[in-house]
Amino acid sequence: MSRHTAVGTIIIALAVAAAGQYGTAPNNYYPDKYNGSTFTGVVAQTANDQVTLTYTKGNKTDTFTGRFETTCSVPSTKGGGMMPSDIPSGTVMTVFFNTDTKKMGGQKLKENVILAIALDTWQGKKIAEDKKKIYLCTSNPHVRFRAFD
Length: 149
Known about the structure:
The structure is a single chain. The protein is globular. It has one domain. The protein is built from 1 helix and 11 strands, in the order αβββββββββββ. The chain is mostly beta strands. The longest helix has 15 residues, at 3-17. 10% of the residues lie in helices and 47% in strands. It has one helix spanning 3-17; strands at 22-24, 29-31, 37-47, 50-57, 60-68, 92-104, 107-119, 121-122, 125-126, 134-136, 145-147. The strands form 3 sheets. Strands 3-4-5-7-6 form a 5-stranded mixed barrel. Strands 2-11 form a two-stranded antiparallel ribbon. Strands 8-9 form a two-stranded antiparallel ribbon.
């Protein structure tokens, strides 16, 4: 299966799964170190390398905050990769992330590290299913992909 076919399959599966906030990526090809966690929500806030997404259903709101491992491979008019500060508030997106635990000052701190994103809307406009893509935000220049079983 080609990488483009794999990405297309992922996007279709994401559209079906977009009704839920936390999820698991469908079977397909991902970077080796990715554990399969996703979160779909609306961009509420960005700062430096972090993005905060919210998902509201009824009177329940879930919030997700994570940092990009590195710039994302989203094409940019200013050159270079996309950072959270480049994403407008209100954008609906899915993040593919791992949760890392680090020990600082004798305490364990959890941090969500975003390895890829998929945009569902951009500047208030819905992105057509056949145009959606997953953009990598990983620093590994030799990303090897693997399929979940």
